[in-house]
User: Which sequence fits this backbone?
C-alpha cells in the first residue's frame, strides 16, 4: 500500500515539475527560423503596457445648402442654376445637444465596448459639451475598436433606384453574429438582424416587393418575336451612408430575420481569414445591436501613452515576491519537515496552474491584477498551512471555502463592473480551492 502511495506521489510531483517548466519557461518550437512559444502571451493592461488615449469630440461642422427660387435644393454638381438663398445645416442640430442625449451616447459606447470585448478601459464624458475621453489597453484589436466605436451606426434599408428609406434602426430588435453551417456543409460567418414586430411586417412586404420578375418585351421590328426580359427590383442595405450590399428576394420572409453572410470557408480559406470574418461580424453586431448614436462624433485625438510602470519595476516586484515565497516555503519545510516539502511542491504546482489559466483565459493583467495574483498565492499558502497543521484536509477546506465566500462575491461583482482585478481574483480563488481539494489532498493524505 505504501509502495503504491509512493508511486502515486512520485507521478504527481513529476507532473508538477513538468507543469512548472511549461508555465515558467514555456513550450518553444521552431517557426520560420525562430523559436516560438506555444503558450499565449500574457494580456497586459493599460497601466503595465501603456494604453491608447482617444478623444471624441461632438462634430460641430456645418454644410452650406443652396436653394433655387422655387425652394429646390441645388446639388454641388449643378453650377448653372441661380442660387436664391443659402442655409447652414449643422451635422448635429442644436436641439440634439442635450444632457440626456450625451448620457445615451455614453451608455451605447459602453455597450459597444463590451460587445467588442474591450477590457480595463476608462470612459469619461463631459456632460457640459458631450466630449468623451477613452483610455484602453493597446492590443491587436485596439485599432479595430477605435475605428468603429464612434460611428453613428445608422442603419437604412432603401430602394436601390429611388433611395426611398424603407426601414431604419427603429425596426431592429436584435443583432447576433457567429458561425453557422451552410447547406453544402461549409462553415459560414453570419450576422442575423432580427426585426421587431413592426419591422417584421415591413420586411415581409419588402420580400414580396423586391423580387425578380419576368416581363414581355414588345417587338421593335416587324416580324421580330416577343422577348422575355428579367427585371430585378432591389434594396440596398446602408450603414452610415455606405452601401453594405444590394439584393432582392426569391421568397417571402415572414419571421423578420435578415441573414447576412460575411464569409464562408473553402479549400483555400485559412483559419486567420475565418477569424477576420468573425471580427467583422462581431463589429457589425456591436455597432447595430446597441442602438444608433443620437449625436455624430469625430476623433479629436488618437495617441499611444507609455506606461509609468517600467520593466525594471515589474522585475523588482517579481524578485521580492519570489524571495518572500521562498522564505514561506522554508518555514513550512522546517516546521512540518517532509509534509512541508510536499506541501511546498504542491504550492508551486498551484502557482504554475494559475499562471497558465490566466494566459489561456485571456485575463487582463493590471497592477491590481498582480496584487490579486499575490493575494491568491497568499490565500493558497494559508490553506496549505491549515492543512499541514490540522491534518483533516476536508475540514480545513470547508472552513476556508466559507471564509472566502465574501471575497468570491466581491470578485464576481468586480468582474461584472469590468474591473480587471475581479476576474484575476475569481480564478485565483476557484483554482486554489479545487486544486487543494484534489491535488494537495492526494499528496498529503496519510
Assistant:
Amino acid at each position: 500500500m505504501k509502495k503504491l502511495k509512493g508511486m502515486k506521489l512520485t507521478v504527481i510531483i513529476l507532473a508538477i515539475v513538468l507543469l512548472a517548466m511549461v508555465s515558467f519557461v514555456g513550450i518553444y518550437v521552431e517557426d520560420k527560423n525562430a523559436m516560438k512559444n506555444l503558450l499565449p502571451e500574457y494580456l497586459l493592461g493599460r497601466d503595465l503596457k501603456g494604453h491608447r488615449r482617444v478623444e471624441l469630440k461632438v462634430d460641430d461642422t456645418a454644410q452650406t445648402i443652396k436653394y433655387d427660387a422655387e425652394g429646390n435644393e441645388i446639388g454641388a454638381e449643378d453650377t448653372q442654376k441661380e442660387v436664391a438663398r443659402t442655409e447652414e445645416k449643422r451635422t448635429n442640430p442644436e436641439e440634439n445637444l442635450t444632457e440626456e442625449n450625451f448620457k445615451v451616447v455614453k451608455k451605447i459606447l459602453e455597450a459597444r465596448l463590451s460587445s467588442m470585448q474591450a477590457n480595463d478601459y476608462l470612459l469619461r464624458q463631459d456632460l457640459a459639451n458631450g466630449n468623451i475621453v477613452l483610455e484602453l489597453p493597446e492590443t491587436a484589436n485596439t485599432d479595430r475598436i477605435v475605428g468603429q466605436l464612434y460611428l453613428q451606426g445608422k442603419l437604412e434599408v432603401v430602394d436601390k433606384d429611388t433611395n426611398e428609406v424603407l426601414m431604419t434602426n427603429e425596426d431592429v430588435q436584435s443583432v447576433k453574429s457567429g458561425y453557422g453551417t451552410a447547406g453544402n456543409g461549409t462553415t459560414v460567418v453570419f450576422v442575423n438582424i432580427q426585426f421587431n414586430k413592426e419591422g417584421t411586417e415591413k420586411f415581409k412586404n419588402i420580400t414580396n416587393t423586391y423580387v425578380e420578375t419576368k416581363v414581355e418585351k414588345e417587338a421593335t421590328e416587324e416580324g421580330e418575336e416577343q422577348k422575355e426580359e428579367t427585371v430585378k427590383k432591389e434594396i440596398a442595405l446602408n450603414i452610415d451612408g455606405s452601401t453594405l450590399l444590394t439584393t432582392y428576394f426569391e421568397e417571402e420572409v415572414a419571421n423578420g430575420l435578415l441573414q447576412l453572410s460575411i464569409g464562408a470557408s473553402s479549400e483555400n480559406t485559412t483559419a486567420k481569414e475565418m477569424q477576420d470574418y468573425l471580427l467583422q461580424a462581431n463589429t457589425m453586431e456591436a455597432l447595430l445591436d446597441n442602438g444608433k448614436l443620437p449625436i455624430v462624433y469625430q476623433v479629436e485625438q488618437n495617441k499611444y501613452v507609455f506606461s509609468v510602470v517600467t520593466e525594471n519595476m515589474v522585475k523588482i516586484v517579481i524578485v521580492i515576491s519570489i524571495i518572500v515565497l521562498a522564505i514561506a516555503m522554508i518555514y513550512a519545510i522546517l516546521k512540518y519537515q517532509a509534509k512541508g516539502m510536499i506541501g511546498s511542491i504542491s504550492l508551486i504546482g498551484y502557482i504554475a496552474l494559475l499562471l497558465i489559466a490566466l494566459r489561456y483565459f485571456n485575463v487582463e493583467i493590471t497592477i491590481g491584477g498582480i496584487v490579486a495574483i499575490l493575494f491568491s498565492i497568499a490565500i493558497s499558502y494559508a490553506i496549505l498551512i491549515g492543512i499541514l497543521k490540522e491534518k483533516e484536509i476536508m475540514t480545513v477546506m470547508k472552513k476556508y471555502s466559507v471564509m472566502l465566500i465574501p471575497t468570491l462575491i466581491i470578485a464576481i461583482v468586480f468582474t461584472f463592473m469590468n474591473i480587471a482585478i475581479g476576474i484575476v481574483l475569481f480564478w485565483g480563488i476557484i483554482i486554489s480551492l479545487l486544486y487543494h481539494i484534489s491535488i494537495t489532498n492526494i499528496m498529503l493524505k496519510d
